[in-house]
Amino acid sequence: MDVPLNDEDLVTILNAIERRTGIATRPDQRDAARVTIRRAMRRVNISRPSELVHAFQYNAAVYQEIVNEVTIGETYFFREPKQFEFIRNHIISDLRSREGASAPMRAWSAACASGEEAYSLAIVCDLMKQPVNILATDVAPDAVAAARKATYRDWSFRGEAMTHVKPYLIRDGEVLRLKDSIKQKVRFQLLNLYDDVYPSLESGTQNLDLVMCRNVLIYFGPRTVTEVGQRLFRCLRPGGWLITASGDPSLDHIGGFAVTATDYGTFYQRPLEGKASDSVNSGVELRRNAKPSPATAPRDTPVSVSSEHRENHSVRRRGERDGSAVRSSGRGARVTDTDQLPAAKEEPKTPETPEACVVSIQAASRSDSALALDKCTAAIARHPLSNELHFLKARLLMEADRLSEASQTAQKALFLDRSAVMVHFLFGSIELQRGQLDSAHRHFRNARQLCDRYRPGDVVPFTDNETAAELTAALDSQLKQLRAQSG
Ligand SMILES: C[S@@+](CC[C@H](N)C(=O)[O-])C[C@H]1O[C@@H](n2cnc3c(N)ncnc32)[C@H](O)[C@@H]1O
Question: Domain 307-485 in CATH: superfamily?
């Protein structure tokens, strides 16, 4: 279906999306957004922009499909592991000191995507024998459905995640299924953070001990960030905590919170009644307000990467979104926006760029991994020099358990660019699964060294929003495990 979309129509559609979801698109992200919107229009079989705007407003099914298309659901288990350590060492012990060990913690993973964050929290609580009720919500119906299913692929557990999660997984063919004992601790529902529907008794968002709202505020404009932050503050009981991700915009300006800023994220505590807001988190000794917020951090500052690397990838700081206000997909692949990779018989007049192919393949991989692999092979035939396509193919092959082909494909990706952090990381993961420990160690070590070329807050290419600091932590942990394994 041909979907013409001029600038004016595109802006009208993007405004309609922002008015319902808070997801804002900057002018420099419009080209990418256009591709996503065109794909969304095909998905709902609507070719006229005005009709789409109307249906988005008044037709629930169309609204849901569009939201599924335009949201970015990238996540994984124990993302930013130090934040989970903070929960274990400070938040749970803080709660226990006030309420006793048997009082259930009430927590909310707001914008949970496919559930990994909420389940990671459930695992932390299980390990600490801390009773917990976790609410997990997202605006995207597909994300909530996937989260309820709780089946994941190996790549969802990179870094140190597998160490924590392994005892709670059952292998089921190609996928790993989370055990019921963990699933039962979390209940999922749809909730749009842009709507003024929380705190409320009905949604279970009142009197919470912990809210995790990570990697979603980056998609909102400043006003929405403030409004969401204020509502989340009211969801907390006195003494309750709000955690954002290390790259999220700051909520320091919102009155009432005691703020603890660290290199690995900002922690906001609603003061206990009668306590001054800067002295509540007793026992927590951390640098306060140590990190400039991404909202105020200088942009476009030169980054210390090799010129070779700079040519291949544009480096962005977390908090600056890439081309996609929109799109989601599998671990480790950069998510930009683009059009659907067409079937052979509907070859487009203008050949698609490799980046466009990547997004299309990622979209396919969410529902049909075999189709995604076929598309990737076809795209490589058209763009044999794209290391990102080879990277993606290697990842798909690994997920399909075709490890020796995955290894060969990763080798090709490396041949095209030896300085790509994520290719080394993926290669290491493949080799680890093949039992090739020396080779795995070498690639993890290379990836770790390449991380040093970035500043901690830089987003690493071929990831969605993962910073050099996050990858460094994951790689350090992986290397530590390997060293322990090899004695
Ligand atoms: C990048 S994921 C973050 C997942 C997880 N919190 C993490 O940090 O790994 C962002 C999620 O925010 C969700 N989202 C975007 N806009 C939202 C809104 N208005 N209300 C609720 N969720 C939203 C998306 O659907 C997506 O699943």
Answer: Tetratricopeptide repeat domain (1.25.40.10)
Q: What's the pTM?
A: 0.69
Per the CB < 8 A criterion, the answer to whether 330 and 391 are in contact is: no
Q: What is the mean pLDDT of residues 453-464?
A: 85
pLDDT digits (tens, 9 = 90+) for 305-351: 222 232 233 355 554 444 333 332 222 222 222 222 223 333 343 45
| Gap from CA of 72 to ligand 1 centroid (Å) | 7
Q: Class of 81-269 per CATH?
A: alpha beta
Residue 164 Cβ contacting ligand 1 at under 6 Å: no
* Distance from residue 288's CA to the centre of ligand 1 (Å): 27
CA 109 – ligand 1 centroid, Å: 10
466 CA distance to ligand 1 centroid (A)? 14
CATH annotation of 7-70: 1.10.155
Contact predicate 290/457, CB 8 Å: no
The label of the residue with tokens 């994300």 reads 143
Q: Which residues contact 271 (CB under 8 A, 6 or more apart)?
A: 238, 239, 256, 258, 277, 280
b/e sequence 415-425, b meaning 16+ C-beta within 10 Å: ebbebbbbbbb
**Atom 17 (ligand 1): residue with closest C-alpha?**
139
Helix (H, G, I), strand (E, B) or coil at 400: coil
Mutate to test the pocket of ligand 1, among 116, 138, 218, 266 (most ligand atoms within 8 A of CB): 138
Residue of 264, 390, 339 lying closest to 5 (CA atoms): 339
Domain boundaries, the chain: 7-70, 81-269, 307-485
